[in-house]
TrEMBL record:
It comes from Durusdinium trenchii. Residues 23-38, 62-94, 120-135 have a biased composition (Basic and acidic residues). Transmembrane segments: none annotated. Residues 1-10 have a biased composition (Pro residues). Residues 1-135 are annotated as: Disordered. Residues 95-119 have a biased composition (Low complexity). This is Serine/threonine-protein kinase Nek10.
Length: 174
């Protein structure tokens, strides 16, 4: 009579692979907990420096070149860049100091030679930008001062007008 052995299954319940019979919401909650635990273990492995396993199939062979690129740290790249820039700045400073020493040795040549050292195009652009910003700031400041001065003149005109009027109150006649 009954196709499945055992007690009848109530509507809305699910049997999980030979396990206990539970409602759909309980089954979903259990499945979500298992997924969360798996995600937590992957995150912990990643924090510890291991590789998180996305697929349970097993490790796949990777291109060693790509793996080496991924292993290289960005902060290391930044450090190398900063070191290189610091070296170039130190070399420029040393060249400038040497040029100053030469110019100090021969004052006649120093007077005829221009004092500003050659700058790269990027440095020239930065200096030009800084000058433009300073110019804009000064212009804005001058405009604000002019506006304040204009407001003060208006206020003074109003005060003078009030002082010059007679003390006798004026009434409007209708």
């Amino acid at each position: 009579m009954n196709a499945t052995p055992g007690p009848p299954v109530a509507p809305g319940t699910v049997e999980i692979a030979g396990g206990p019979k539970m409602s759909r919401s309980e089954a979903r909650r259990l499945r979500e907990e298992e997924e969360a635990a798996r995600a937590r273990s992957n995150a912990e492995a990643w924090r510890l420096g291991g590789k998180a396993k996305v697929n349970e199939e097993g490790p796949q062979e990777e291109d060693p070149k790509k793996a080496a690129e991924r292993e290289r740290s960005r902060s290391r790249e930044k450090k190398e860049t900063l070191d290189r820039l610091a070296k170039s700045a130190a070399e420029k400073a040393a060249k400038a100091a040497a040029a100053d020493a030469e110019s100090a040795a021969s004052p006649e040549e120093a007077a005829s030679a221009p004092q500003a050292p050659k700058l790269s195009k990027a440095e020239e652009a930065k200096l030009l930008m800084a000058k433009e910003k300073e110019k804009a700031r000064l212009k804005k400041q001058a405009m604000l001062e002019a506006k304040k001065e204009e407001e003060m003149k208006k206020k003074m005109a109003i005060l003078e007008k009030d002082l010059n009027t007679s003390e006798k109150p004026k009434y409007k006649r209708y």
